[in-house]
Amino acid sequence: MSQDDCIFCQIVDGEIPSRTVFEDDVSMAFLDANPLAPGHTLVIPKRHHETLDDVPEDTAAHLFGVLHRLTPAVEHAVDADGSNVAFNNGEAAGQEVPHVHAHVIPRFHDDGGNPIHAVAGRRPDLSEEELDEIAADIESGH
Ligand code: 5GP
Ligand code: ZN
Fold first, then answer.
1. Which residues surround ligand 2, an ion (CB under 5 A)?
2. Does ligand 1 have an atom closer than 6 angstroms to the CB of 50?
3. What is the pTM of this model?
4. Pick from 11, 17, 56, 129: CA 20 to 30 A from residue 35's CA?
């Protein structure tokens, strides 16, 4: 299920070199080529899926298990004070490589960065009714 024109499929297939830090049958993790911090790591499913919605549930659970084990190792390797673990899920959210991947970005008390709250655009001003409606739609939609 690899896609010829996908950079991350080419990394999985060994056609593009990577600094791989973890690999099993389902997933792979390697250092980001343009790191936002030392230790910036990407975790991917080996099969080509574009966004989180496309990932089968067992693969998603597997990826979370890998993130759970790998994140402390990443932090420890670079002596980080914390980390942001996040997906740019879809083009509108800033996803540039259309092969789903989690970023593990080590954080340091003095790194000048921002919390994940800083990634979105204008904040909405939602009424209690609108919040109720959104919550109900999410609850009934999965
Ligand atoms: P996105 O914006 O899609 O969430 O992030 C894609 C990430 O992939 C970026 O942080 C970028 O630096 C990284 N990246 C792009 N091409 C390559 C590559 O060929 N090798 C590695 N290791 N990382 C890459
Ligand atoms: Zn791919």
1. 3, 6, 8-9, 48, 99
2. no
3. 0.96
4. 56
Q: How far is CA 133 from the centre of its chain?
A: 28
Gap from CA of 31 to ligand 2 centroid (Å): 16
Exposed (0-12), middle (13-18) or buried (19+): which is 122, by Cβ within 10 Å? exposed
The strand ranges marked E within 1-142 are: 20-23, 27-31, 41-45, 82-86, 102-107
**pLDDT, tens only, 14-37:** 999 999 999 999 999 999 999 999
Matching residue, tokens 């009934």: 140
Which of ligand 1's atoms lies nearest the C-alpha of 35?
A: 12
* End-to-end CA, the chain: 26
d(CA 114, CA 118): 6
